[in-house]
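Hi support team,

I submitted a single chain yesterday and got back a structure, but I'm not sure I'm reading the token output correctly. Could someone confirm the output below corresponds to the sequence I sent? I've pasted both exactly as they appear in my results page.

Thanks,
R.
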Amino acid sequence: MDDLIRSNAEAAVQATAAAYNKGDIDEIMAMFEPDIIATWNGAIVARNADELRAWFLGGMVGQATSLTIEKTLMVATEDTIGTHWRHVASYKNGQTVDGCGNEFWTVRNGRAATWNAVGVETPRS
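Hi R., thanks for writing in. Yes, this is the structure output for that exact sequence:
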């Protein structure tokens, strides 16, 4: 069972990374429950999928002209996934950044019901 949980979690994590790399907001949002609660660096950024979509479009997903993200599965249980991620993003304002962080999903019905992430971006010189 543990191997099945881990392999399913790994597939979900890699599908998420692929969706971000394509900049496909619909594919990204398909991974979240409609009543998703999302936090970023300890602050609630969304209390439902519409708010989360708007948050993503106002930030990295909507503002990036180029994004390469790699996610590594760190924790997998029946209802929890934890990852470490690293990314390089170029934004519409001309800035390129390196970013990294961690995220934890509480999974319900095969999708994230909660998403709690912490991360930082550092501008390249």
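A quick pointer for reading it: The beta strands are 32-40, 43-46, 64-76, 80-91, 96-108, 111-123. Let us know if anything else looks off.

Best,
Support desk
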